[in-house]
Amino acid sequence: MTDLQQAHALSFGPVAAQYDAARPSYPAELFDELERLAGRPLKDADVLDVGAGTGIATRLLAARGARVLAVEPSDGMAARLRAVSPRIPVVKGVGDALPFHDGSADLVTYAQAFHWTDPDRSVPEAFRVLRPEGVLALFWNVKDRAVPWLRAQEERLVAALPSYHFYGGVTDAVTWFGEHGVPVERVTLRWERRVTLEGHLADLSSRSYLAVLPSGQRERVLAAERSALAAVFPDGSLTEPYLLDLFVVRRPR
Fold this sequence. Notes:
- There is one protein chain.
- The protein is α/β, with parallel strands linked by helices and about 250 residues long.
- Helix content is about 45%, strand content about 25%.
- The protein is globular and about 55 Å long.
- The chain has a single domain (about 5-145, about 170-195, about 240-250), classed as 3-Layer(aba) Sandwich (Rossmann fold), CATH 3.40.50.150.
- Helix 5 (about 75-85) links the parallel strand 2 and strand 3.
- Its EC number is 2.1.1.-.
- This is Class I SAM-dependent methyltransferase.
């Protein structure tokens, strides 16, 4: 990683509790589609959830009956995962160098995390640890910026935060597969959640582009957002619409 990437990647540990409480979850339809594209149920599958964070997706995979192992490099995030979900095993590691034997998993999943890897390393590593017919699944919850208030918010954040888009996004990460001729199956789901204005701001403040800022600067950005959003949502509650992208890649034979 570059120094800038490293700073952003390390920013999650100190905000782990806030991340776990405020970040969006995932609808059941995501896992229905994952099972359909993988061609197998999650029940009794051996799953490595890489970049597991505080275990938001990990817990849902386990609830579907998967034997899931969380892989997380951040001590702060892993500590929160262990505190909230003590029955889920956690291994310290990164996707670019998975600490597992060849052919040891049915699925490798990345929830909101694949863009933190180097695909030249993380994709071959995923294929190495997958069994024949195993799949690599990548998914991202992304707020629907076509909605006017979210589009206006993004414009404000781009103007206020120099590193807002520094690490790329869904398109940049998945472009790798097209450039390398690796077939990818994609499904996009739409869903939404109702949150308070303060809950929305808590989610926002757990994002790396805000977490890396000095506290004074971060609070100024959040105060500006609170003021702008209060004008749109005077009752203090709002609906966040999401586009949930799922990409499934089957291990080459």
